[in-house]
Write a structure and sequence with these properties.
CATH architecture of the largest domain: 3-Layer(aba) Sandwich
Distance between the termini: 69 Å
Strand order of the largest sheet: 5-4-6-7-3-8-9-10-11
Radius of gyration: 27 Å
Helix content: 25-40%
Number of strands: 14
Length: 338
């Protein structure tokens, strides 16, 4: 066995021509392994079938361009009859490059060979959907020395090797645990963090049973964080709203900061305490302490981009606030300081 590491230096790496990451759905589903997790019976399979139809025909997904290609859908919790009934509900013309299988081997027990053989026979296939991930895992296996995290990571890595070696995208459907995590919904994925750790892209589909709208959270190595609001309408998940990381961050900025921007529209500068600012702005639903907190936390995001400089200084028992409308001349900074 050769124990020597195979390395490449940075200069050589920069000079090597490489193809860009392939996207099945632009900015949303890249090549590699993606895992979409959601509660049972939430509508994941309807979404996967619709996605397979759109991609196989080169039709857009929520306004995003798709790469038209062959699709292999391992619909392992369904029968051919159920798939046929669903197709009747979703389309009038079924493409012949969307293939279904309702049975397959397990990871490490024939699945990899079956997928590779299919790819060799259908060379236009670039998307493989596994519905569900649990159906291709060995439920009789024990954690053993690797532990739950190790087993989860190894299973996803086995699928990822197929995706990477064949330049395809594999999308695995998974479940969420019942225990909620308000801080990080990605921690709700059933199993250990080995699943989301090994996957290139992770999706979380969440909705309340009594509502027809859901949130699709997206996080990955080749995609920016996104939050999509979807509505289940006539068996199809339709896009209501899409927010990227910048949109989400802006939404977190308190309304009061934008009111300060309006307040400074007719002023070159203003100096006073937080209490005096509240009084002049005629705001009654905010306290001086919150004003100071908001300015310290969000002034760089809300005030600086529109040319308003924020300064603060404690004098005796009070803390002074100063806003200066910037003229772009740094020479005046010392003169204008509190």
């Amino acid at each position: 066995m050769n124990n020597k590491l195979i390395t490449v230096d940075a200069e050589t790496l920069l000079s090597i021509p490489m193809k860009k990451t392939m996207f099945i759905v632009d900015g949303l589903i890249p090549q590699g392994v993606s895992v979409i997790s959601g509660a049972s019976k939430i509508g994941k399979s309807w979404l996967m079938l619709w996605l397979g139809l759109q991609v196989s025909q080169g039709l857009p997904v929520w306004g995003l361009k798709t790469k038209q290609c062959g699709v292999l859908y391992l619909s392992l919790e369904d029968t051919h009859r159920r798939i046929k009934d669903r197709l009747y509900n979703l389309t009038d013309t079924a493409p012949n490059n969307l293939h279904f299988a309702v049975m397959c081997g397990l990871i490490g027990g024939g699945l990899e060979e079956q997928i590779i053989n299919f790819l060799n026979e259908h060379t236009d296939t670039k998307l493989v959907i596994i519905d569900t991930l649990q159906k291709v895992r060995d439920s009789k296996g024990s954690a053993g020395k690797a532990g739950m995290y190790g087993n989860d990571y190894d299973d996803i890595s086995s699928i990822k090797r197929i995706a990477d070696e064949n330049n395809i995208a594999v999308l695995a459907v998974h479940h969420l645990r019942k225990l909620k995590d308000s801080d990080d919904p990605f921690n709700e994925v059933s199993g250990s963090t080995g699943i989301i750790g090994a996957a290139d892209t992770n999706f979380i589909l969440k909705r309340k049973r009594t509502k027809d709208t859901a949130s699709l959270l997206v996080s990955g190595r080749d995609v920016e964080y996104q939050e999509l609001t979807l509505q289940f309408n006539e068996l199809v998940w339709e896009l209501v709203e899409r927010k990227n990381s910048d949109d989400i961050h802006k939404a977190e900025i308190p309304k009061f900061l934008f009111q300060v921007v309006d307040f400074m529209q007719s002023r070159d500068e203003w100096t006073g305490t937080a209490s005096e600012l509240i009084a002049e702005m005629k705001e009654s639903e905010i306290t001086p302490n919150i004003v100071t907190k908001y300015l310290g936390q969000f002034s760089c995001d809300a005030l600086e981009p529109v040319g308003i400089e924020y300064q603060t200084k404690r004098t005796g028992k009070s803390r002074l606030i100063k806003f200066i409308r910037s003229d772009g001349n740094d020479a005046n900074d010392e003169e204008n300081a509190i």
